[in-house]
Amino acid sequence: MFKRLAGVLVTGVLLGGVAQAEELSIVAGSIGKDIEELRLQLDAFEKASGHKVKIVTMPASATDQFGQYRLWLSAGNKDIDVYRTDVVWAPQLAASFVDLSDAMKDVVGQHSPSVIASQTVNGKLVAMPMFSDAPALYYRKDLLEKYGKPVPTTWTELAATAKEIQDAERAAGQPQLNGYVFQGAAYEGTTCAGLELIASNGGGDIVSPQGDITVNNPKAAEALSMAHGWVGTIAPKGVLGYQEEDARGVWQTGNAVFMRNWPYAYPLGNGADSPIKGKFEVAPLPAGAGGKSAACLGGWNLAVSKYSTHQQAAIELVRYLVSAEAQKQRALLNVRLPSIPALYQDPDIVAQQPLVARWKDVFENATPRPSAPTKTRYNEVSQQFWTTVNRTLAGQGDAASNLDALDKQLRRLKRNDW
After folding, report:
1. Nearest Cα to Cα of residue 239 among 31, 389, 69, 417
2. Which pLDDT value is given to residue 251?
3. Rounded Cα distance, 103 and 105, in Å
4. Contact 269, 251 (CB under 8 A)
5. Reduced to 3 states, what is the DSSP secondary structure of residue 193?
6. Which protein family is named in the record (predicted)?
7. Whether pLDDT at 1 is above 50
8. Concatenated DSSP letters for 362-383?
9. What whole-number distance in Å separates Cα of residue 95 and Cα of residue 392?
10. What pLDDT, in 10s, does the model give residues 267-276?
């Protein structure tokens, strides 16, 4: 049975000609309007299918979420039916999820092949993409216009412009203004930000697609040394503890010239109660000495637990949430980047959320984290890397020495199985 509600196609599970109502649970993070957005779509699904869906709220940190998932799955937890997963988790959690290959064979071709490949482990489709992600440089267009500055296209230009505007505005009576805020805490988000800096500087990708450890090189050290120089000058010292929402909190109160963050922050910054509504725009992240911009591939996917006792209904829920209709709704509401390429030309999205259409090339050329080559060891590799980045930003050892130590740690991990 198919029902269309609020422009979204929903499928119900039929047993004996009558839809059997089941109670499902889905986990979701708590960044921005994640929960409100999901609840809106779940309400539509419930009305159309007869099922009930409970949201199990998770912490904002993806690192904390991953730790909780592993605990639940290793214990064979039957209480969670659908997991919302980061794009890099598939190799590590594949054994605990249902193979969706057959259930999604009629729709999988709509989605970006590279994203589907990232969610396929040894021929098993572990999860389906809910939305994709790639970060942006947010900038205060009013302040750049005030000081006659162009949007920076290199990290060197960003640092110089941030310092000039920050100093001038502080002297004019804005002592809380910072030049640049980003994610520098010891967690997964700093793996993304650190990888972008290194890759844009020509310093490689931590671990190559072939599994070679590449992070210990002068260009990578140069990139991290540059970022260390920002802390306490154009960025507050507190950036060493910033995750996405910490950076957005400073930015949205009007206390930063530039910010690195994901597209979710765009509609929030333009909300009716936002002090910076209409005062900012976004651009690709700056290039380093390597001459290119690097944006880390992000995105969230949906997987069905093999321990669920409601697998068929859970699969129907996943089909709904990854559908073109649901992805279009999320793009219109909260600038979620679709994993379905055709939606980037959708007239409604182009008209109402032009940022989505502009971000197609950024998304398609985004830099992947090394989850595929490091397989089940990715989380340990990432933890070692983000710790190195955080320590270097904090001045706990110089970049070259810290990367040399990281290289030795990664080689030990590789010998132990990847």
Report:
1. 389
2. 98
3. 6
4. yes
5. helix
6. Belongs to the bacterial solute-binding protein 1 family.
7. no
8. HHHTPBPPTHHHHGGGHHHHHH
9. 36
10. 999 999 999 9
